[in-house]
Amino acid sequence: GAAMLRSLGPLLCLWALRVPVPPAGTGAAARGLDIASYRERVRAMFYHAYEHYLESAFPYDELRPLTCDGQDTWGSVSLTLIDALDTLLILGNVSEFQRVVSVLQEGVDFDIDVNASVFETNIRVVGGLLSAHLLSKKAGVEVEVGWPCSGPLLRMAEEAARKLLPAFQTPTGMPYGTVNLLHGVNPGETPVTCTAGIGTFIVEFATLSHLTGDPVFEDVARKALKALWKNRSDIGLVGNHIDVLTAKWVAQDAGIGAGVDSYFEYLVKGAILLQDQELMSMFLEYNKAIKNYTKFDDWYLWVQMYKGTVSMPIFQSLEAYWPGLQSLIGDVDNAMRTFLNYYTVWKQFGGLPEFYNIPQGYTVDKREGYPLRPELIESAMYLYRATRDPTLLELGRDAVESIEKISKVDCGFATIKDLRDHRLDNRMESFFLAETVKYLYLLFDPDNFIHNDGSDFDVVITPYGECILNAGGYVFNTEAHPIDPAALHCCRKRKEEQWEVEDLMQEFYSLKKKKKFTLKRVPDHGEGESAKDPEDASSEKAGEKTNSKKSSHSILSCPSQSFNSKLAVLGQVFLDNT
After folding, report:
1. Where would you find this protein in the cell (predicted)?
2. Is 211 helix (H, G, I), strand (E, B) or coil?
3. Over the chain (578 residues), what is each successive 10-residue block's mean pLDDT?
């Protein structure tokens, strides 16, 4: 027996090493990291900031944590409250979620004479309201009969988005960067917008179009995306800022960071959300050019967009989203290598400086701050879902320790003005509660409903039939507001897309008159016309290629009745005809 045990020794050791790593749990238990205690610390971090915002800053946009008061930053709409709303639900606080929903309905008005960033209003306000709207039933809010195709938060999101539409009325379809919420684009407004400010609308605007049935939002977002694509350089890169009237590039630095970042992110996320091949192939083309010209030793530099020559050997903290994006397209090994580079910078400073000079291995003058940004934590969350590598939990641990040690003050958490001497700034950005805390919590909460793998879901009856919600696969907008992709299939307004029992019955009963019968089906691509007779099938096939280019509405081709009622209908019909 002893000899046998000895020979099995190495195997038993391996087996024993395997056991403490359950698939849904954590590999970091091996390194003594208690995720439950970190999860609770993140929760406490949220409430320390949130309660002080409510106490000292609401209804202003943001908390000023050093003076315990508030300020308006992005347009006077109680921004931190809108941005933090879905985080409340992710932390499981339904009662406060419900209270805030009614506060926002009463108190927020977009008919105000305020100049607002088109980009920021979209990702923070429209994104936050859409996400909260889609989660409100889960949060126990009494929803309207037509939900998710109607509801107060959806109406608010639509109202905010409509205020942004005048910005898109340019010869190129690329939007201005700033709009007045009352008067539209100001006369004399600068026509120069950054690439991200043009290409970061498809997630929110396509969701709005699918839920409200008004195609204008998705249309302008697509037009802007395509205009950027059309204006890429011969070597396949886009610059940083472009003139939206003339389509001339004003800032010609190409990279993956500030000014460009979320354009690439939204090509991938838009492709996933809308099952849109064209958006994904655009991204994959860019990805090749980015690898070819900007990637060196798993770092990404800035290059001149036409020549490909290095213009700045700088890593910006905003670029830290990239490993997470790579993981979404399945490129996990490259993602992990780049992540580890970025993590070394974090460990050097206890945070990510806004700019880091790669060859010199140090901060850049005037860019030594860390405003509690989420990007590295966001990438850690995605990569942890993909790999369960405990190193990723260690970054989460370091972030919690750093933020608590350096930036926590009596009234919340303050932006770190300089990572070298830990001076603070009197500001707490709304993304701290929308993103940083949310991604930290999700990193430490493997069983959160957001991580649902589809084994659990809700069936909702809408005026357009049944639909499935909360089955997982959430797509986060660039402000970490989760959008349920299944919701986009709940509100199909066109008659051809409604599979009603009567439609089926009529088809079957017309069998006697017609001899040949084809069941209406919804094509995979294109405008959802019902299937033609067999003779038309070949022309339809030909049309499918051009349609798939457009595929402006990826239509879920499942009938909207429940399965057993469908079988009953079919069974009944066949009995009648035998």
Report:
1. Endoplasmic reticulum
2. helix
3. 46 37 44 89 98 98 98 95 98 98 96 97 98 98 95 98 98 98 97 98 98 98 98 98 98 98 98 98 98 98 98 98 98 98 98 98 98 98 98 98 98 98 98 98 98 94 89 97 97 56 55 48 43 41 42 43 40 35
375 is catalytic: yes
62-64 vs 299-300, strand pairing mode: unpaired
* Residue 214 backbone dihedrals phi, psi, to 5 degrees: -100, 110
Match 């022309």 to its residue by tokens: 539
- Non-local CB neighbours of 347 within 8 Å, separated by 6+ positions: 398
User: CA–CA separation, 346 vs 391, rounded Å?
Assistant: 13
H or E element: which one contains 124?
Answer: none
- C-alpha–C-alpha distance, residues 7 and 191, integer Å: 75
Establish whether 378 is a catalytic residue: no
Which of the residues 61, 83, 86, 375 is marked catalytic? Answer: 375
Catalytic residue among 61, 158, 319, 354, which? 354
| Cβ-count burial 457-482 (b if 16+ within 10 Å, e if not) | eeebebebbbbbbbbbebbbbbbbbb
Evaluate whether 167 touches 185 at the Cβ level (below 8 Å).
Answer: yes
Is 87 annotated to bind a ligand? Reply is: no
**Other beta carbons within 10 Å of 332:** 18
Alpha carbon distances (Å) from 6 to 11, 15, 277: 10, 14, 56
**Token output for 79:** 């921004």
Residue 527 known to be catalytic: no
Residue of 52, 62, 55 lying closest to 82 (CA atoms) = 62
354 annotated active-site? yes
From the list 218, 261, 368, 378, the catalytic residue is: 261
CA distance 193 to 197: 6
